[in-house]
Design goal:
Layout (H helix, E strand, L loop, with lengths): L1 H23 L3 E2 L11 E5 L11 H15 L6 E4 L10 H11 L7 E4 L5 H11 L4 E5 L5 H10 L3 E5 L7 H26 L7
Parallel strand pairs: 1-6, 2-3, 2-5, 3-4, 5-6
Helix pairs in contact: 1-5, 1-6, 2-3, 4-5, 5-6
Length: 201
């Protein structure tokens, strides 16, 4: 009986992630894939920055993925979205911009969104504040299904691009954390759908 209940709980916990993966299947690719199509922008999601201002590995890989899309001509600009002042007082978007410039993306192709304090806010800002209609979301593979679902929920035509999947402890932790995080996203999407229409800013 306990084993059955544990199985049911695990199934329930995984349900939103399974759904997110199903609805984004076929639209998640490596940045060099020929299956990707042009979009208004690469939406580069924020991540940890080290105290000296360097981007963490995950953040650097996200910017590298977006830079590849830019140099391939798939996107005319990179929207670098994250916390302008995170819990440590560091600017994620500044670290992202410096990385993009080093990768040969010109300053005029960079748009900084310092109010993207979470994935949902980044999606809304892209659609409502920047007026984008299509994006290629750039983040790790474990994050893409949820991020793409949130972007689609605000009206963005969405593809996803991710760096190579590395067999590391932090990658495994990322996949595990996505289970409750996708439940949270599902509840937010349902709440937004039930709320009165939000006019674009």
């Amino acid at each position: 009986m306990m084993r059955r209940l544990a199985g049911l709980a695990t199934t329930a916990l995984a349900a939103p992630q399974v759904y997110a993966r199903a609805i984004t299947a076929g639209r998640r690719h490596r940045p060099d894939s020929d299956l990707l199509r042009p979009a208004d922008a690469a939406l580069v999601l924020g991540a940890r920055v080290w105290p000296d201002g360097r981007p963490s590995r995950f953040l650097r890989e996200r910017v590298e993925t977006a830079a590849t899309l830019y140099h391939r001509g798939l996107v005319p600009r990179l929207v670098l979205t994250g916390a302008g002042s995170n819990r440590e007082g560091l600017d994620e978007t500044d670290a992202m911009a410096r990385t993009a410039l080093r990768l040969g993306v010109p300053q005029e192709a960079l748009v900084l969104d310092g109010s993207g304090h979470d994935t949902r806010a980044s999606a809304r800002n892209a659609r409502e504040s920047l007026g984008l209609t299509s994006v290629i979301v750039c983040t790790q593979e474990f994050h893409l299904p949820r991020a793409m679902w949130l972007c689609g929920s605000v009206g963005l035509a969405t593809q996803g691009a991710h760096p190579a999947i590395l067999a590391r402890r932090h990658t495994a932790i990322g996949y595990a954390r996505e289970l409750p995080a996708t439940w949270k996203a599902a509840l937010e999407i349902a709440r937004d759908a039930a709320a009165p229409h939000r006019a674009p800013h």
